[in-house]
Amino acid sequence: MKSLDETVEAVMRTLGLDDAAVVRRKAFLEFTDDDVARLRTLHAALQDLAPDFVDAFYTHLLAFEETRALLPHAQTLERLKRTQAAYFDNLTAGDYGPDYILHRLRVGAAHQRAGLAPAWYLGGYSKYLAGLFPELWQRLGKDPEAFVATCQALIKIVLLDMGLAIDTYIQADRQTILTLKEYADIVFASIPDGLLVLSPDLTVLSANRAFLERLGLTEEAVRGRYLMEVLAADGLRGRALEVLATGVAQHDVLFSMGPAGSDERKPVRVTLTGIRLAEEEEEEEEARLLLIVEDLTEEQALRAAALESERRFRDLAETAHDGIIMTDPQGKIAYFNRAAERMFGYRRNQALQRSIGTVLPEPLSCQLDEGLQHTPVWETQGRRQDGTFFMVEGSSSVFEGSAGRFITYVLRDLTERKQFERQLIHLANHDPLTHLPNRKFFQDRLGISLDEAALNEEQLAVLFLDLDRFKLINDTFGHALGDKLLLMVAERLAGCFRKGDMLARLGGDEFVVLLRGLSGKQDATLVAQKIMDGFAHAFQLEAHEAFVSASIGIAFYPSDAIDADNLIRCADSAMYQAKEQGLGYQFYRLDLENLSSERLTLENSLRRALERDELRLYYQPKVDLASGAVIGLEALLRWAHPVRGMIPPDQFVPLAEETGLIVPIGEWVLRTACLQIKAWQGEGMPLLPVAVNLSARQFRQPSASGETEGRPLSDEAAGVHDLVETIERVLGETGVDPSCLELEITESILMQNLSTAANILQALSAKGMRIFIDDFGTGYSSLSYLKRLPIDTIKIDKSFVGDITTDQDDAAIVAAIIAMAHSLRLKVVAEGVETQEQFDFLLERGCDAMQGYFYSKPLPAEEILPLLRSTRNSSSGRD
Ligand SMILES: Nc1nc2c(ncn2[C@@H]2O[C@H](COP(=O)(O)O[C@H]3[C@@H](O)[C@H](n4cnc5c(=O)[nH]c(N)nc54)O[C@@H]3COP(=O)(O)O)[C@@H](O)[C@H]2O)c(=O)[nH]1
């Protein structure tokens, strides 16, 4: 709102109330200087009257409700009284210049603003004049002319004031009207719908901004023009005339509307309504037509977009791989896509309006929780139309619409995934070849069974089963047949157990069995025996019949171990013992395990002994009995163990044979002995042959065992096969003449496969090597086979020699061996000669040579040459 001063200024400006105008107003009122003088005179006379006069004035005002309402507070009343006193004072003060005028306008404006209607305001002046006239008469009644003239002056100045007050009232009202009009114009212009006011002859009287902008028109182009010259809209004119004629409004009439003369059209919705305005008081009310024009372009675009979006959603939902179901607030199916049809077996029209529980029978959190908008992915059961159940994975979203709660379910059939998961679990727990439980599954199940056994105070047993010679079969017949054998074994084993027992394959040719609810060892024995019996029959591997045996180790809970790992380990250890001893099955024994563990440690060390250069060769001279000359040396193996010291061969050679390590070790012996021969030759030592020992494993050729029969060989087998080649190669590489190398083999080696041994010995002998039969007398003691072999010498075992002087039997045996050997033109060497008596006995019986501590213990290579030199210098032989 404007300030009072601004209002007064506006009044003065509007009325053009400058000094000249005031002068003219005064002139019109014939307000003269004489009037001014008379009022000044009056002023002096009325000085004491002001307080009572003002009080009386306000008492009058307070007597009327309309004026009293404007004086609500005592403070306001006091302030007004002071203003009134000033007014009273100024009225007759005689100064009626610009300040007076300004003051009078302010008073008028203030009363107008306070809400005092003009009638009451003018009534106030009446009270003034009516109150003053008696006072004037009292003071000037004696001079009627002066009285009348003063009254006239007073009336003139009061009327001047009243004129000014009325001007402020009129001006303020006019300002209000202008403000309202301005406001109306703004509102009219800013209404978002188009507004068009037409006269009864359809001339455009006004159009708001929205209308003009929507149709691309200007106010000048439309105002005062005939509607149809401005607008093109079929049927609009007729509708407008109807409304004018009937006075009945028409709502929401749709048109396609555009500027006349253009092809542009917009979809619009129009409301046509008649209005009546009286522009001037004296004019008759004139009919007007108001068109409210709503532009539907955006709305239609939005609707089209919504339809498009809905169509796309439907397309998407219909082509989705996942089932999509929507339920209404009553939980009834309101939408059911094609994937849902496939998943549940219902046609859409069969599913609609059924409860969601028809297809998802278990209550879901999204159905129960009021506040839930989105639930994470869950799994639940789905029910097909045929009543079968399956697992579904789903998620849901909740939409709170005006009609209630709608839930959308997105569902995926988990049947395949669950099947896949089951397959994965099966694969993780089963052996892929035999489909038996694997180690992990077995261990888990064993753990559970152990807990149960502990609770029920029961015994259980683990059988560890390993096929004998499976590697050989695998290498010989190939992996495909090896696999087939494992399958057949698994099948046979499966028939040996009760329900509740468990058979598993740990890998390779290892199987384990869990036996539960045992009454004692005898139960496990029965099962082990049953397994052994099962292996008694051959396995038919295509064209081959294979006899396969198994070694079984048995460990018991709680006597051997109380946890799964240890129980399996004990059974494994027992199996190892069974295999070693060729027992078929063996119960776990701690002492045997300790032995095994030592053996294992030794085996591991022996494997590294070659790499670490821990092997040594000692040499023991062979002495001609008659001359006492050294006629050769035997190379004897030692293991210089870093912790255990010098280990004799009988403590590790059998192990090396078992593990196959004897093959590389044997080659090392050959090479070392040959290199030593060369070294001695270089040192000027007389040419002495050196004998090396060959083990059965080295000596065995593939065909000798009859196991491979021309089929592919394992590396190990190939190494054995190459004995002749190896010896030749080493001789070639070291440059040693074959005549310097002697080979010692035992009778038992020969007897394992005589014909093959004969072939090998022939080949070696043909190269110039001499062959010795070692430990003669301990084996077959048959000289007949010697005729068929290229043997040069036999060595009588030291077990006979040791007692020849005390035991007549041994003496007789030795004498007989010497005699028979000679009859076969074989030389004889006696081993283990320790005494002069033995020496003499042998010399007397015609034995060719001897070897033993009597002459020398086996010595390191570096001690041999000094030994030879010292004996050459001393007398021949030992007496
Ligand atoms: N395959 C291989 N076997 C080998 C090799 N080196 C040795 N051996 C065999 O180990 C067995 C034990 O040999 P060793 O402990 O060396 O014993 C030999 C001599 O030390 C011992 N001997 C010799 N004279 C006496 C004696 O007067 N008294 C006595 N108590 N013992 C004596 O006899 C063993 C000789 O063995 P051998 O002539 O071979 O029969 C043994 O069987 C060796 O064959 C190897 O490199 N490979």
UniProtKB/TrEMBL annotation:
* Catalysed reactions, as listed in the record: 3',3'-c-di-GMP + H2O = 5'-phosphoguanylyl(3'->5')guanosine + H(+)
Domain called EAL: residue spans: 599-872
* Residue span(s) of domain GGDEF: 458-591
**Stored Pfam families:** EAL, GGDEF, PAS, PAS_4, Protoglobin
Any idea which GO molecular function terms this record carries?
A: cyclic-guanylate-specific phosphodiesterase activity; heme binding; oxygen binding
Biological process annotations from GO: cellular response to nitric oxide; regulation of DNA-templated transcription
Q: Which residues form the PAC domain?
A: 376-426
Q: Identify the residues that the record assigns to the PAS domain, covering every copy.
A: 309-362
- Which segments cross the bilayer? none
- Would you say which domain of life the source belongs to? Bacteria
Q: Which InterPro entries match?
A: Biofilm_reg_signaling (IPR052155), EAL_dom (IPR001633), EAL_sf (IPR035919), GGDEF_dom (IPR000160), Globin-like_sf (IPR009050), Globin-sensor_dom (IPR044398), Globin/Proto (IPR012292), Nucleotide_cyclase (IPR029787)
Its protein name is: Diguanylate cyclase DosC
Q: Which organism's genome codes for this protein?
A: Sulfuriferula plumbiphila
